[in-house]
Amino acid sequence: MKISTKGRYATRVMLDLALHNTGQCIKVKDIAARQGISEKYLEQIISMLNKAGYVKSSRGAQGGYRLSRPPEEYTVGMILRLTEGSLAPVSCLEDSSGECGRRDACVTREVWKDLYDAVSRVIDGVTIADLARRTRALADSPSPEQVPDQAPETSAQ
Question: In whole angstroms, what is the distance from residue 84 CA to residue 3 CA?
Fold first, then answer.
């Protein structure tokens, strides 16, 4: 399974909105600049998020976008299913597919089901709030260049 650019960018947009939430709407150009995404492509992604009710829009000079709900209520899985559609690795696991004629005798289906369940557990277990905490922790941790050299310990003899 490979997550498309749209799925990755949508997740980054939601994270950006959570990290820069001041109660005011955030302009597309500001998100695009911070995330290194073209405004035109970002508008397509934001439109999808807006139609799904994940973000709210406001027009005018102070217009832009903000999350519709708290970041704790959005999982990475929700965003990826919106942008990617089904994340099932094989069609026989998709909700909308018909029954597979080999279902009862197909031992590989169990492998694909286990894979799907494992991926779902991970992406459904991580919220935008979790990603925001990870981002802040990463920003607060010193880079290797910032860690002072430690003098070697000398042993007293």
Answer: 7
The region of weakest confidence among 53-57, 113-117, 133-137, 139-143 is: 139-143
Short-list 68, 62, 85, 61, CA closest to 14? 68
Its sign, for the CA torsion 83, 113, 126, 75, is positive
Query: Tokens 């959570």 belong to which residue?
Result: 18
User: Which DSSP state fits 138?
Assistant: H
Tell me the two tokens of residue 59: 């027009």
Residue 71 CA to residue 15 CA, distance in Å, equals 8
pTM of the shown model: 0.83
Q: What is the pLDDT of residues 90-132, one digit of tens each?
A: 888 876 555 677 767 788 888 999 999 999 999 999 999 999 9
How far apart CA 65 and CA 85 sit, in angstroms, is: 23
